[in-house]
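Example 3.2
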Amino acid sequence: MIAFRWLLSLIFIAQMYVAMAVIALIFAPWALFSRIGARTACKTFCRWVIFTLRLLCGLRCEVRGTPPTAEAVVAAKHQSFLDIILIFNAVPAGKFIMKRELIYTPFLGQYALKIGCVPVNRGKRGTAIAKMKADVARGAAEPGQLIIYPQGTRVAPGVVKPYKVGTGLLYEQLAQPCQPVATNVGVFWPKRGILRHPGLAVVEFLPPIPPGKPIPVFMAELEAAVETHSDRLMAEAGFRPR
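Structure, written as tokens:
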């Protein structure tokens, strides 16, 4: 049974990347001249992944809470590629703070830049934060939801990793509400490996944190909300820390 699920997971992954290339090429004439076209292509890909994930792997996806529709900072738990897909598909005009290396990834990198994502160099923390703030400020006239992962990378279920101050600096600079997002997707779609497990993968949009709080207060409130609710969702999925 495990071998069969592993094979279906491998088929899912292969067709997912083929679909990425096909959708990117089909939408290219529109996306080249239009951010709406690029965003539509990305959402089409997200919906295809969600559909085929359930069809081939038995993994259903659910979005809980109320995603923001106005400008906001979305600060999310990051466990796998799946939470990127679910969050982007749930908001009207998402754009990510992303590591700079991804802009060289075929199709993904070009479309990420087109929808307004902000690449940063994570290797130099101080420079990365300053560059991130400057890039966000230059793009502030473009409405949308700025999605950031406060821990800076994918974090497997049960692993503890500190939250980085860059999220607090953006929250202070932009003076926008921040919407925390919890998830359990890493229980089913691991950080590494082929096997995708059946079940119910959830991202949950939590009540927004209003602008204007001191950065230390904001960071403590954000971490408590995201970690507490992510732990609850993972327990709901049957995950127990070792």
